Amino acid sequence: MCRQTGGRWHSAISIDTFLPVQSIISMATIAHFTDPHLPLTGARLRELASKRILGWLSWRLRRRRNHHADVLARISNDIAACDPDVLALTGDVVNISTRSEFASARRWLERTAAPERLMLVPGNHDFYVRDALKAGLPRLAPWMTGRPEERMPEFPTVRYVGNVALIGVDSTWPAPWREASGMVGEEQLERLRHLLANSAAKGFCRIVLIHHPPLTELASKPRKALKDADRLREVLVEQGAEIVLYGHNHEWAHRTIETRTGIAHILSAPSASMAPGRKKPPAGWQLLKVERRRGEWAIEVTRRGLANDGRSMHELERLSLSSLSQ
Length: 326
Known about the structure:
- The protein has 326 residues and is α/β, with parallel strands linked by helices.
- The protein is 24% helix and 24% strand.
- It has helices spanning 52-66, 69-82, 99-112, 132-135, 141-145, 186-201, 229-239, and strands spanning 27-33, 86-89, 118-120, 157-161, 164-168, 205-209, 243-246, 253-259, 262-268, 284-293, 296-306, 313-322.
- The chain has a six-stranded mixed beta sheet. A six-stranded mixed beta sheet has the order 4-5-6-7-9-8.
- α3 (99-112) links the parallel β2 and β3 (118-120).
- α6 packs parallel to α7.
- The two termini are 26 Å apart.
């Protein structure tokens, strides 16, 4: 039970300008949630003269029955009751990247948490078409960077929270029709390699945020896979990471891979707006408590989910993870 409390971007922001390291604390808490898929309203006819028409039809015929705003509100309230140090949101805030969706997403983020308290990486639905930038995706940039400027950053981004380095990876690209795939790209992978090494040298626990499943075997279908997952895995194995958080599949998952520095735990969660009684698990989220203990990183993960009644939240399981053992 939680405690109760009061593509590729231009005009890049260097990762060196991100938030400075805070005072090191004995424990950091991170709330991971993903794929809220806010209600799709207000799409204009000319916006639908593109790949968006497929997503709009999917929403009208199926997805709107799965993703409910009241369910997302319950998840948000449950997270707030736990008062984490920071929220980690792994993409798919919107559905087809329309102007009205980004305006609604901006208002929802403002209600959910201040930019310095929430770190966002985009998902494929946030960069659904090439003109997502013109439609308003940069309005969400403050939650990607922790800064007020509405400019898309150069990824990976980094945010320091106590003893944790949160590293945001962008897996979006202008995927063709009928694809929901992702791609990180060689330039970003090279920057990620250096960032993982530097964060480890400074003594931080490294938590990577990405929308798409980071391993080939985790993809639900080839058309939804991360195209360069094998290259990402090589970087993770070479440099190490303690945790990788992802979304996209709308399912709970926990996998591990061995790296040069220990074990990387790879975790996902269901859509934060998924109603009960659907093919996918009901909405849920996970709270990570990170602390240094006897020369290793100890991460306690509490997974919480919506009950089948659609009203109450309950604890599903607890995972006690170590950076040195599976």
